[in-house]
Amino acid sequence: MLKVSLSGISKKYNGRYVLKDCSYAFEQGKIYTVIGPNGSGKSTLLRIASSLEPPDEGHVTYHDGSSTIENNIMLMRRMTLVFPTPTLFNTTVFKNITYGLRIRGLSRNDVAHRVERVLMDVRLMDKINQNALTLSTGERQRLALARAIVLEPEIIFLDEPTASLDPHSVVIIEDIIRGLKKGSQPTIIMSTHNMFQAQRLADRVLFLYEGTIEADGSAAEFFDNPGDDKAWRFITGKMVY
Amino acid sequence: MLNLFQHLINLMYYKTLKRVQGDSFCVYHGKRDASVKTEFLSLAFLFVLLYVMHDILKSFAEAVGLIFSFNRELYSIILLSLKISGSALIGASLLGVPIGAIVGMKRFFGKGIVISVLNTFMGLPPVAVGLFFYLLFSRRGPLGFLGILYSPSAMVIAQTALAMPIVAALSHSAVASVDKGIRHTAATLGATPFQTVKKVIVEARYSIMAAVIAGFGRIIAEVGAILIVGGNIDGYTRVMTTTIALETDKGNFVLALGLGIVLVTISLIVNIALHRVQGIGVQGD
């Protein structure tokens, strides 16, 4: 199974460091939540870790067992990223979900089987022939998640998957994430602003502050004692930023 | 017409009577003075209009008759026009859509200049294009050996050159306006760079179709370029617009008007199609 690790990653936008010397090895099959204030570099970290964007310094490596995987299209097809405000294609829900499968050349039977299962999971079966652009915000986010998990990736990056969603949609998405852990067990790396969600879902938590990974630990330990003053102030709501 | 004329004479008689008698209580058919005056002016205007337009209206009626009589000459000209402009449109789309897509998606040195050139060429004067290709295809020109001057091939090439910048510039706008997120999303779902380009074009499909339709609208009604490189040869390079110009010179308004009606109808259909395509694009499929 695929594993990702970051070594000395730095990224600058307009001459300002957004990420600074970040190193971390993500273990396979675990759920990671990346927390931190706005502008701390969470989204950039996810984009770089998913190879959507190259780092200015350092490198991202992918391993399968003991061998290092070359960064090419075959690697890209083993992982996926879901954006906080997903861009949907101007076509039906069905065609949105099948896009990734079709470009991988899957058989029609395989496509139908996977789509049906995923649509049941995200509770969008009744919208299958509806134009994706007519869906509500919550439904759009669920569709984006469905479009990603239908590909059965080994690493899923979720950039604030429940931002601005109603509680009902949050519950559905959290259920899907938990279901993934029980099922195909991909590595899930998600950023969130919701501390309770991080506690509910994460195996491990990373605290990012001004582009640096300031603290990390298992979810249970981290929320009791993050071992870092800034992280403590952040999770207890005492950090003014 | 005769009744109208009779009515007008009566009114003139009344006006004269009124001027001679000089009375203000005079009524005509029970109507007051002011309303009689208005009626007189309206009728006089209508009469003059009908008199002046008589020839045009007569030609118009005959032109409509010509269209519905399925005149062979008329329909062969329409067919040739559609063939030439259709072929030119295919050429312009095959060149213009990829150019527009590349300019819309890729970053390269001089991109701004390319966009400015495309936008400028959208308004190329057809006669200038015709002259350029005439010099190119004339016997002494660099492509004179092809021997295609005064042939439908030369007309197709000239019209392709006219429509291509329109298709390319509007396709560029269409592709550039596609959300950047589409490219990123396609990439995160495992699309190769080529598949990503394809997806962006598919997302911009309605605007690209509108660009192609706009290109067709430009060339179907064009006369300058095709007249210069086609030569308006009867049964060979004579199309709707060149026929209209020629028949008007000859004073044969019936055929010219018939073709004019067809041309306007085609333009109307093109515009309705454009409107519908844009409407579908807004609503989604």
Note the topology.
The complex is a heterodimer of chains A (241) and B (285).
Chain A: E1 2-13, E2 16-25, E3 31-35, H1 42-49, E4 57-64, E5 67-69, H2 73-76, E6 79-82, H3 93-103, H4 108-121, H5 137-149, E7 155-159, H6 167-182, E8 187-191, H7 195-201, E9 204-209, E10 212-218, H8 219-224, H9 229-235
Parallel strand pairs in A: 3-8, 3-9, 6-7, 7-8
Antiparallel strand pairs in A: 1-2, 1-4, 4-5, 9-10
Chain B: H1 2-21, H2 33-68, H3 72-105, H4 111-121, H5 126-137, H6 152-176, H7 180-188, H8 193-203, H9 205-220, H10 224-230, H11 240-250, H12 253-283
Helix pairs in contact in B: 1-2, 2-12, 3-6, 3-9, 4-6, 5-6, 5-10, 6-9, 6-10, 7-8, 9-12, 11-12
Outline the structure in words.
The complex is a heterodimer of chains A (241) and B (285). Helices cover 36% and strands 27% of the residues of chain A. Chain A is of the alpha/beta class. Chain A has a 6-stranded mixed β-sheet, sandwiched between helices. In chain A, strands 2-1-4-5 form a 4-stranded antiparallel β-sheet, covered by helices on one side. In chain A, α3 (93-103) packs parallel to α5 (137-149). The model of chain A has no long low-confidence stretch (mean pLDDT 92). With 285 residues, chain B is mainly α. In chain B, 78% of the residues lie in helices and 0% in strands. Chain B is built from 12 helices and no strands. In chain B, α6 runs antiparallel to α9. The model of chain B has no long low-confidence stretch (mean pLDDT 87). The chains are: A alpha/beta (241), B mainly alpha (285). The A-B interface holds A 50, 52, 73, 76-77, 80-83, 85-87, 89-92, 99-100, 103-104, 131, 133-134, 147-148, 151 and B 179, 181-182, 184-192, 195, 199, 202-203, 283-285.
